[in-house]
């Protein structure tokens, strides 16, 4: 199982993403933003960070990266893809997922351990969770408020494509407490929280609830 | 407009130079003339004026700081000591850590966001220039009173600046301090610490050896940041042209700095760097003179080649610009192509601007004419040294006589506990720290509100040796203690940081410091400074932890009102097996709660005296370095044996606050009895060399034996569990009540 981990010049969580994948038994394959090469990976992880500095709208430049011209069609063809934080923002900017992430309602960057409810346990990245299960993952972002027009929201809700919802207090003012969503096919998942920071007892957030993402994709790839 | 050349300086020996406007004294200017044998050119004056400034030359502090060297304890861990960009310490298994704390106080008052952001940027580049990967930052912050209006301007800006810059760099922020006191209202303190890791055989130094080697300036382009002084020079030297007022505060670009970090690490991996220096205060002036002075001794630079963001900059301005995110490297001619290719991969502009020579002169040209021709060491190392006069402040004796003994002590200790827990300095810092990313890079084991930050040493660089080690870091300082007794105050800052490292299970190894004081021209301030340095140097010797570097910030005063003397001390420690770290506070129910160390009736400079009576007088708690060392030995030994489940140091607010915070850590209550006869003293005295630990009942005897062996007092207080903190016969409060008191204060002010 080879899972690509994308690095833009300002990507920050790629080391964590690679470690989380390795701990789950996958091989983490570095993918460089300026290359036109997906190296034949079986899935892709777009980690968080500030891709090209994000002085413009987060992810707005990244969507034009050379690697994205390979990633977008691959995702549309069914390649499993997980975007966390800036990765989620990039997936939205690239229109692989609907809606957008805007400045937190509180106008401050927020880093905290957040309770999250799993609302869809059938995507490529969530089968090892149970629907309705509450997990704790860190959030750490300044622009994580999910917004979309009423029609899109209704569509997401009706089709069960809201994968994660903030439980307890909403850290950023996201509509419908949305923390993460998936595309129609269920292969592309984006969320603001960071599963890769919750995979070891010693480090990161309390608990290891993030492991479920990586065990889910490994199981899927093994069975594929 | 013509440029002032060396040739022209020879022809116009009597031209008045604006040295006074640049902050240079007549006798200092006369020395420059004597060194050069002629008047300096405008560019040369720019170099000398910044290099001989207090900030760069340490001219008022040098004679005192020497004690950090002469009194330094013998340390096998010290690999690089003071005088380089940052000290380097051997942490075992072939790994080294480099760390330093530095002030960015004045810019942060003028423009809080950019001032604080560039403070982070500057210290991170110091760490990079040692050859290390920066792995974490911390911030030690002081603001005016929480109820003072300007605090609401300065604090949010500073926090946002640190948050934006540090988060974009991908460096976890793992701790620090936030302190409020009206004495800082016009002079907030922003002290930023960075720690980096490197292989101990790959240390880089700021040196330019090897004639023929090339000098490369890389990173951001040079703009008009931070050159107020240079425009004085330009407009006073050259008639007619009116210069626009340049912004004096630098503006940061964290994305460029992130690129620089990755670019530098790849340059080090490729082994194409002979010497390297970051550009901080005094920019190109500082980097060229210091590199040349520490290398073969000479360098030529063509200033026209410096890439500019603002093409109208004059050479004097280029020399003084403090534009951020720039580095200077010395590279052999054969490695130039490889060097430039790596820079290009990371989109980092890089330009060869000069060459190392063996002439002993730093020669710079502009439009083909020589505008600087100086012996670089005279600017970098031979600045003026002052023996400033000092004496004890006039009111010091009376201040020490005004003890807290006569203050009315409370009978309702529950109210006192909740009041202290909600006070400006003891309330939850979460409003601040939740704006910092503490998880990035995935090696954070402990972060705020733990006593110290703790990092796993792992996956720092590709191909690096596996290790189980971790490093712990804490910063502390108490301006009220230092005001009462600066000698003891500095030692108390060290004691607390040392203790904070030890409660995690790590062994303290080395020290960095940021010495924040008023004007050195005031003999009373200078006395505070001299006493603080003497105290710190003596204490470092006793505790066996050398000072590896640091920074002095003078002139933190408005009019004649100086801040409380505020020596901030950072301590770095190492733990052999990071998995054996001790958690912060009470992690579970059913554990024995134990107080280590002795408690005395000590309230001088205490939080209680401050909060309940707005009183500052008497003497701070007694320093007991031997007791600190023994306590640290107990803590590290107990951690190594796996005896401890949780710990917390006792400091501001005493045992009462430590118990409450330990309960709040995981929401676990405790029931305890106090050991002494006076519940108020037991709960709120700030005696030093104490810590709270909790452990499984079956380990209690082993711990008491260990304590007995080292003569550390040890009291079983009670047990963890329940949802309240119960101090039997004294007070009871639910964890929820504690939390509500603790967490409402900062959000109540800052929203």
From TrEMBL, chain A:
Active site (catalytic residues): 85, 194, 196
One Pfam family in the UniProt entry: GATase_5
GO CC annotations on file: cytoplasm
Gene3D superfamilies found in the cross-reference section: 3.40.50.880
GO biological process: 'de novo' IMP biosynthetic process
Record keywords, A-Z: ATP-binding, Cytoplasm, Glutamine amidotransferase, Hydrolase, Ligase, Nucleotide-binding, Purine biosynthesis
Protein name, entry field: Phosphoribosylformylglycinamidine synthase subunit PurQ
Organism: Herbidospora galbida
Gene from which the chain derives: purQ
UniProtKB/TrEMBL annotation, chain B:
Identification of the protein by name: Phosphoribosylformylglycinamidine synthase subunit PurL
Superkingdom assignment: Bacteria
Active site: 55, 104 (proton acceptor)
Positions bound to ATP: 58, 100, 513, 550
InterPro entries for the chain: PRibForGlyAmidine_synth_PurL, PurL_linker, PurM-like_C_dom, PurM-like_C_sf, PurM-like_N, PurM-like_N_sf
Keywords: ATP-binding, Cytoplasm, Ligase, Magnesium, Metal-binding, Nucleotide-binding, Purine biosynthesis
Keyword Ligase: yes
Function per UniProt: Part of the phosphoribosylformylglycinamidine synthase complex involved in the purines biosynthetic pathway. Catalyzes the ATP-dependent conversion of formylglycinamide ribonucleotide (FGAR) and glutamine to yield formylglycinamidine ribonucleotide (FGAM) and glutamate. The FGAM synthase complex is composed of three subunits. PurQ produces an ammonia molecule by converting glutamine to glutamate. PurL transfers the ammonia molecule to FGAR to form FGAM in an ATP-dependent manner.
Description of how the protein assembles with itself and partners: Monomer. Part of the FGAM synthase complex composed of 1 PurL, 1 PurQ and 2 PurS subunits.
Residues engaged in binding substrate: 103-106, 125, 250, 322-324, 553
Pfam families (UniProt xref): AIRS (PF00586), AIRS_C (PF02769), FGAR-AT_linker (PF18072)
Its EC number(s): 6.3.5.3
Any GO BP annotation: 'de novo' IMP biosynthetic process
């Amino acid at each position: 199982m080879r899972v690509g981990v994308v690095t833009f010049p300002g990507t920050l969580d790629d080391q964590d993403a690679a470690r989380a994948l390795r701990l789950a038994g996958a091989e983490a394959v570095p993918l460089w933003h300026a290359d036109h090469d997906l190296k034949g990976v079986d899935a892709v992880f777009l980690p968080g960070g500030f891709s090209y500095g994000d002085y413009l709208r987060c992810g707005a430049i990244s969507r034009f990266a050379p690697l994205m011209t390979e990633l977008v069609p691959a995702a549309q063809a069914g390649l499993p893809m997980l975007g966390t934080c800036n990765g989620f923002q990039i997936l939205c900017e690239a229109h692989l997922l609907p809606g957008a992430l805007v400045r937190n309602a509180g106008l401050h960057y927020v880093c905290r351990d957040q309770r999250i409810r799993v609302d869809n346990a059938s995507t490529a990245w969530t089968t090892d969770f149970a629907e309705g299960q509450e997990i704790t993952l860190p959030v750490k972002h300044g622009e994580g408020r999910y917004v979309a027009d009423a029609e899109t929201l209704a569509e997401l809700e009706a089709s069960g494509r809201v994968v994660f919802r903030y439980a307890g207090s909403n850290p950023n003012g996201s509509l419908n407490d949305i923390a993460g969503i998936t595309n129609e096919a269920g292969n592309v998942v984006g969320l603001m929280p960071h599963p890769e920071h919750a995979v070891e007892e010693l480090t990161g957030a309390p608990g290891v609830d993030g492991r479920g993402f990586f065990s889910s994709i490994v199981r899927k790839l093994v069975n594929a | 407009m013509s440029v002032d050349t060396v040739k022209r300086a020879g022809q116009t020996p009597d031209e008045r130079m604006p040295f006074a406007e640049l902050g240079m004294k007549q006798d200092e200017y006369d020395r420059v003339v004597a060194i050069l044998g002629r008047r300096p050119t405008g560019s040369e004056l720019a170099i000398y004026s910044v290099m001989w400034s207090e900030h760069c030359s340490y001219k008022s502090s040098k004679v005192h700081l020497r004690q950090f060297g002469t009194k330094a304890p013998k340390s096998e861990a010290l690999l690089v000591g003071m005088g380089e960009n940052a000290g380097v310490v051997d942490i075992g298994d072939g790994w080294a850590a480099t760390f330093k704390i530095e002030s960015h106080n004045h810019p942060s008052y003028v423009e809080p966001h950019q001032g604080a952001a560039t403070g982070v940027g500057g210290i991170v580049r110091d760490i990079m220039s040692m050859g290390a990967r920066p792995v974490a930052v911390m911030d030690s912050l002081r603001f005016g009173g929480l109820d003072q209006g300007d605090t609401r301007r300065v604090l949010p800006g500073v926090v946002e600046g640190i948050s934006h810059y540090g988060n974009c760099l991908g460096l976890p922020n793992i701790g620090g301090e936030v302190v409020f006191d009206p004495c800082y209202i016009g002079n907030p303190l922003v002290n930023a610490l960075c720690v980096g890791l490197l292989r101990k055989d790959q240390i880089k130094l700021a040196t330019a050896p090897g004639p023929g080697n090339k000098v490369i300036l890389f990173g951001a382009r040079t703009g008009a940041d931070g050159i107020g002084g240079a425009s004085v020079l330009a407009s006073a030297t050259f008639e007619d042209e009116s210069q626009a007022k340049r912004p004096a505060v630098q503006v940061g670009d964290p994305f460029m700095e992130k690129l620089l970090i990755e670019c530098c690490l790849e340059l080090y991996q490729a082994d194409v760097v002979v010497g390297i220096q970051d550009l901080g205060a005094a920019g190109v002036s500082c980097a060229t003179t210091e590199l040349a002075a520490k290398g073969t001794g000479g360098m030529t630079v063509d200033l026209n080649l410096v890439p500019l963001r603002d093409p109208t900059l004059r050479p004097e301005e280029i020399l003084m610009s403090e534009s951020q995110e720039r580095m200077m490297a010395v590279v052999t001619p054969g490695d130039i192509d490889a060097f430039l290719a790596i820079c290009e991969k990371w989109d980092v502009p890089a330009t060869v601007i000069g060459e190392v020579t063996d002439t002993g002169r730093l020669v710079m040209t502009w439009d083909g004419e020589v505008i600087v021709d100086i012996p670089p060491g005279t600017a970098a190392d031979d600045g003026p040294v002052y023996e400033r006069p000092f004496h004890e402040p006039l009111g010091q004796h009376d201040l020490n006589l005004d003890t807290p003994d006569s203050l009315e002590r409370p009978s309702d200790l529950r109210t006192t506990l909740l009041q202290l827990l909600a006070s400006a300095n003891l309330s939850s810092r979460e409003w601040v720290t939740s704006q910092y990313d503490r998880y990035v890079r995935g090696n954070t084991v402990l972060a705020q509100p733990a006593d110290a930050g703790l990092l796993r040493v792992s996956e720092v660089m590709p191909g690096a040796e596996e290790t189980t080690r971790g490093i712990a870091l804490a910063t502390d300082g108490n301006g009220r203690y230092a005001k009462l007794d600066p000698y003891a105050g500095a030692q108390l800052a060290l004691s607390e940081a040392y203790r904070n490292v030890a409660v995690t299970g790590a062994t303290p190894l080395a020290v960095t410091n940021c010495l924040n004081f008023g004007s050195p021209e005031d003999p009373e301030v200078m006395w505070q400074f001299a006493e603080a340095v003497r105290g710190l140097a003596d204490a470092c010797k006793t505790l066996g932890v050398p000072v590896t570097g640091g920074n002095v910030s003078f002139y933190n005063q408005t009019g004649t009102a100086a801040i409380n003397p505020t020596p901030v001390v950072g301590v770095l420690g190492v733990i052999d097996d990071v998995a054996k770290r001790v958690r912060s506070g009470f992690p579970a129910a059913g554990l024995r709660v134990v107080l280590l160390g002795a408690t005395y009736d000590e309230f001088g400079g205490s939080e209680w005296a401050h909060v309940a009576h707005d009183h500052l007088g008497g003497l701070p708690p007694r320093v007991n370095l031997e007791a600190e060392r023994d306590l640290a030995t107990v803590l590290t030994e107990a951690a190594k044996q796996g005896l401890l489940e949780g710990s917390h140091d006792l400091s501001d607010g005493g045992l009462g606050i430590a118990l409450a915070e330990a309960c709040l850590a995981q929401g676990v209550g405790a029931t305890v009895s106090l050991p002494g006869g006076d519940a108020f003293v037991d709960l709120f005295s700030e005696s030093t060399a104490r810590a709270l630990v909790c452990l499984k009942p079956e380990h209690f005897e082993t711990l008491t034996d260990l304590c007995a062996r080292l003569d550390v007092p040890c009291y079983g207080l009670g047990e963890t569990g329940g949802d309240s903190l119960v101090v039997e016969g004294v007070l009871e409060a639910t964890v929820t009540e504690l939390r509500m008191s603790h967490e409402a204060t900062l959000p109540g002010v800052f929203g």
